Amino acid sequence: MLVTTGPQQALADAIGLHITQIKRYEAGSSQPSLEALKKIAQTLRVTTDSLIFEPGELEPDEDLRLQFKAISSMPEHERQIIKQLLEGMIIKYEAERWSSKTR
To answer: How far apart are CA 62 and CA 24, in angstroms?
Structure first.
C-alpha cells in the first residue's frame, strides 16, 4: 500500500477529507463547501477571508483610504454621524439596485 505524506495529506487528515479533494481545491477543479473552508481556516489558523480573497481585494480605493484616515482622527460623535450617512447611502444604493433587477 502506498502511503502519501506531506502538507496536502496532513491538511486532508486534519479536516477529515481525502487528499484527492484537497488536490481538486488547489487545482481549481472543485470548490470547497462553507464547512470545508471553515475547517481549513481553523486548521491553518487563518481567516476564511484570507483563503477566499486576494491580498488587498477587500481594501478601499486609495482616495477612500485617505478619507477614512481623515475621518478616523475626528471626534467620536462626528465619526458616528459620518457612519450613519454612509450606511444610509449604502442602503439607498442597494435598494435601488435590487429594485432595478426586479423590473
So the answer is: 36
Residue 19 and residue 8 in contact, taking contact as beta carbons nearer than 8 Å: yes
3-state secondary structure the chain: CCCCCCHHHHHHHHHCCCHHHHHHHHHCCCCCCHHHHHHHHHHHCCCHHHHHCCCCCCCCCHHHHHHHHHHHCCCHHHHHHHHHHHHHHHHHHHHHHHHHHCC
Name 8's Cβ contacts closer than 8 Å, sequence gap at least 6: 19, 22, 23, 26
- Over residues 75-94, the pLDDT tens digits come to 999 999 999 999 999 999 99
Instruction: Give residue-wise pLDDT tens across range 2-50.
Output: 445 688 898 899 899 999 999 999 899 999 999 999 999 999 999 999 9
pTM over 0.70: no
